[in-house]
Description:
Layout: H1 8-18, H2 24-34, H3 41-47, H4 52-64, E1 68-70, E2 74-76, H5 78-95
Antiparallel strand pairs: 1-2
Amino acid sequence: MNLYLTSYSDIRELEVSRLKRRSRLETIAEILETAKDGAKKTRIMYGCNLSYRQTKKLLNHLLETGLLTIGNSYHTTEKGLRLLEAYHTLELLLKTN
């Protein structure tokens, strides 16, 4: 194994490989959790550690599927709350074994 990193991209690649990536479902659950009591786009973006592009794409998807609504801020719908509850139940079931 080469112990010497030759460029910034080598260092970045090493950092990224050490990070655990979230699944799309984990990210969606985090957005729904953040928006339970209402949240602006910026709060969701920073709170969920997403880029502007990721935030925009996911928020549009959640609006289209009826998991979020928008007024002055984004709010998790009843359908979104049910998904969140099912997600947390599944998470508990998977961690107990």
